[in-house]
Amino acid sequence: MNSNRRSLIAATLLVAGMQFAPLGAAYADTSLINVSYDPTRELYRAFNAAFAKYWKDTKGETVRIQNTHSGSGQQARAVIDGLDADVVTLALEADINAIAEKSGKIRKDWRGTLAHNNAPYTSTIVFLVRKGNPKGLKDWGDLTKDGVEVITPNPKSSGGARWNLLAAWAWGLKNYGGDVEKTKAFVGDIYRHVPVLDSGARGSTTTFVQRGIGDVLLAWENEAFLAIEELGPDAFEIVVPSLSILAEPPVAVVDQVVDKKGTREVATAYLQYLYSKEGQNIAAKNYYRPSEPELVDPDLLKRFPKLELATIDQLGGWAKVQPEFFGDGGVFDQIYKPGK
Amino acid sequence: MAVDAAMKPSALALSAAKEERVRPFRDPTSESLPVKILLIALAAAFLALVLFLPLYAVFSEALRKGLDAALLAIADHDALSAVSLTLLVAVIAVPFNLVFGVAAAWAIAKFEFKGKAFLTTLIDLPFSVSPVIAGLVYILLFGAGSFLGPVLESWGAQVLFAVPGVVLATIFVTFPFVARELIPLMQHQGTGDEEAALSLGASGWQTFWYVTLPNIKWGLLYGVLLCNARAMGEFGAVSVVSGRLRGETVTMPLQVEILYNEYNYVAAFAVAALLALLALVTLVLKALLERVYSRDHALTPGH
């Protein structure tokens, strides 16, 4: 009986005890949390290393930067719910506005605290198709052809997906001479060709690339380039439509958090470093269009195709577009009927 | 048709009885050879498809670039801290649910009280709600917009997007494992042994320690193992409250997802393989303990 009892205790302890391992966290002088959107993983991995070196060289301080990535809307939600981000580097203005409005953690007039409307890099939306472009997709109008499957994430949670929808919208407006109803029908038609709505851009890329679903991926230009680089130029190619949208992913300091943690100086320097020669070149290397191209190696710039880019301001700016298109009962809710 | 059937039973019984008389006796577990082969092949194919192939896929993908690459991926700082966080979470969640599970099962199986059915349902709740909801509940409770969150925050305690949140979410989803395992067992055993012990003068604690605990040890061990496996593998609830801070709040399942999303498939599956190995170690441990126990049994006379 006694040995039984001892064995039982031993058993319980063993199950618990075998899992002890030292918790070794690397402590640094300062640490920053950068809450970012889905496809910037590679960009910030390179940039964080460069900034840590720069900060060490100029200030002698070791800084450790933590990056988290997910759909842009989802990330904004996490910051609102209490994730202690020092800086946010999201996919669109509306998500930073949401943080400013719903939690007050970022000042309302954040846009303009840094150069170029707080967008150190821009991007656009292109098509990624399978090698040889078997369905012959050249422009937005081809996406609604019979039998074409389009992959794009959910605009409710993904910033890239909102740019996708707006790019299609901009093309529709131009094509139908500004007729909103026809444009709406056209964009709705595109979404009827979407078999899966993932929550973030990277999830969509995986759906298209790894699971082999769909004929065309509406993707961030950087994401499309990266997919080709990572997964082989012999499998995919990029198609540049006649018109797309100028996407400005903005960055901002989260005022309440940096004031609480005492990291305002390093957080601000971190974002400003994105505009430096080094930062701009890293952005360009990772296929983001630098906001100050004159600082960047011309060879890197040559990789970006030239195309006509509509701006968000032509559609009325984010303050108008966000509720009108992506709010409850907005354009997206009206046109998206799953399973049709 | 219904009338027809109602009138027939006697006739049916008669013909069934007749048939039985004609049929020679047959061992109920013996089947003809082709049926045997078919059934065994079906079971084996099912096992291969559902269990072995996925396991094989995980390990083969992890080792696609050789053992060195896989080990290097696991030795990565973020991966190591994911491993230690996962273990830490299990070390906290499992004993917590062990104590709670025994107490709850004890109360439910050995006592009669008002609201017992309600309590039983409540214990099952984490099984019936989706883990995502479990995570969101904690956001509602401890988020910046909640009542508790800002209060705790002003005391300098952060729950969400920090280790406590991950632990809480894990405890929530693994709540029922021990209790669920023990309740039917203890109900089946009844209160006879305990009553006997008490009437012989044992104290409540002695009764529990010398009578109840030995009776339930196998159920308890099994519950703890299940609880442990789930605690280490939980993804949904943890992903909601974690905030995915690398090296801080990322557990192994989250690390697998992050690496996968970074196109780092070898590293992702190396961590996944390690997670699978941890689960296997638990199972091996269980088999080992069973062996020790049966030897003890043989040596203890009169038991």
Automatic annotation (TrEMBL), chain A:
One of its GO terms (biological process) is sulfate transmembrane transport. Its main location: periplasm. This is Sulfate transport system substrate-binding protein. It comes from Allorhizobium borbori. Residues 1-28 form the signal peptide. The keyword DNA repair does not apply. InterPro entries: Sulphate/thiosulphate_BS, Thiosulph/SO4-bd. It holds the Pfam family SBP_bac_11. CDD domains: PBP2_CysP. The keyword Transport applies. One of its GO terms (molecular function) is molecular carrier activity. GO terms for cellular component: periplasmic space. Keywords: Periplasm, Signal, Transport. It is found in: Periplasm. Belongs to the prokaryotic sulfate-binding protein family.
Automatic annotation (TrEMBL), chain B:
The keyword Transport applies. CDD domains: TM_PBP2 (cd06261). The chain crosses the membrane at residues 37-59, 80-109, 129-152, 159-179, 263-285. Part of the ABC transporter complex CysAWTP (TC 3.A.1.6.1) involved in sulfate/thiosulfate import. Probably responsible for the translocation of the substrate across the membrane. SUPFAM superfamilies: MetI-like. PROSITE patterns: ABC_TM1 (PS50928). Pfam families: BPD_transp_1. It is a multi-pass membrane protein. NCBIfam families: 3a0106s02, permease_CysW. GO terms for molecular function: ABC-type sulfate transporter activity. The complex is composed of two ATP-binding proteins (CysA), two transmembrane proteins (CysT and CysW) and a solute-binding protein (CysP). One of its GO terms (cellular component) is plasma membrane. This is Sulfate transport system permease protein. It comes from Allorhizobium borbori. Residues 83-286 form the ABC transmembrane type-1 domain. It is found in: Cell membrane.
